[in-house]
Amino acid sequence: MNREGIPGRVARLRERLRREGADVFVLVVTERYNGESMGYLSGFRGSSGALVVSEDRNYLLTDGRYALQARAESPFDSIILDGGSLQDKTAEILRQGGWKTAGFEAERLSVSFFSALEPSVPAWKDCSGLLPALRRRKDEGEAAIIRKAADLAYDTYREVLETVREGMTEKEFNALLEYNLRKNGAEGGWKNNSFIVASGERSALPHGVPTGRAFRKGDIVTVDFGATVEGYMSDLTRNFSLGPLSPQGRDIQDTLLEAHLRAAEAIRPGAECRAVDAVARDVVTRRGWGKHFPHGLGHGLGLEVHEAPRLSPHSRDVLEEGDVVTVEPGIYIQGWGGMRIEDDYLVTAGGAVCLSGGKGREAPAL
């Protein structure tokens, strides 16, 4: 993960802490949980550690397994545990600091860990929304990494597509895709999420995980996939068919293409997320498929595959410059199948910039 943006991120964190009335912030990672925010703020990507950030101090606490890694990845002052627990050492640092009010993430800190820290500071303030808000705004470097992850994912998908044949199973396709992503330079697919490979009637499942079902002549296959590069993820959905698309399949594809492009045109700073969703939903409804579009239009993307903001009829989010969001209208018909078309967009002052290239949106017939 690029260290160049860390000073700016820490400065923005401190500014927000002042607004919250907190003079220190504590972030904890256990067994990789919450590791995305740890990496974003400090650069450190180990599986266990804690950050303590005040107006004039930045501490990174971890154990001996990560002594070299912590110093290589992070500009923070490293404190390496020499026996004892992470909870006890973090509490000791807080006591020594003499801070009055500590910000923490109630949504991401276990009760037992918090109980160990609580006596070390007089007052605590839940700042669970602080890091997600900071992470929303992607800088040029972050956007470039997501673009790289999208290009790598799409090129690898096209490579695997050349191997498709009748009788290949969903699991085989998925395994080849994941293997080739790593071979081609990705850290892997998505962290903590599996790809979607759904064929034939199973493509009516928006979240159809790969099974042993074999591809058959006439199948539509929906593939929702991405790559991780330097911790950042891309998220694309493409479709292909074994044989020509049916007239209904062509109509659904054309509907989704129109809905996708119209929604992308509506993306700009200040746009309500539900209004962008409505643009795509109106197209799908006008063309007769409205009841078959059961999910929101998209979501934020970055260090996690699902982040703020949400593009949905129920969202109260407003798009901001620097957001990266997916646009993924879908149509699903029980007993027949379904399709979805997804790309990743950066919100800029001038509108939406497609980070995933927009290539291959029309389903090829294999």
Automatic annotation (TrEMBL):
Domain Creatinase N-terminal: 9-135
Entry keyword annotation includes Electron transport: no
Matches recorded under InterPro entries: Creatin/AminoP/Spt16_N, Creatinase/aminopeptidase-like, Creatinase_N, Pept_M24, Pept_M24_MAP, Peptidase_M24B, Peptidase_M24B_aminopep-P_CS
Molecular function as annotated in GO: aminopeptidase activity; metal ion binding; metalloexopeptidase activity
A Pfam family that the UniProt record links to this protein: Creatinase_N
Ranges for domain Peptidase M24: 145-349
Alphabetically ordered keywords of this record: Aminopeptidase, Hydrolase, Metal-binding, Protease
Highest taxon of source: Bacteria
Keyword Metal-binding: yes
Protein name per its UniProtKB record: Xaa-Pro aminopeptidase
Protein source organism: Aminivibrio pyruvatiphilus
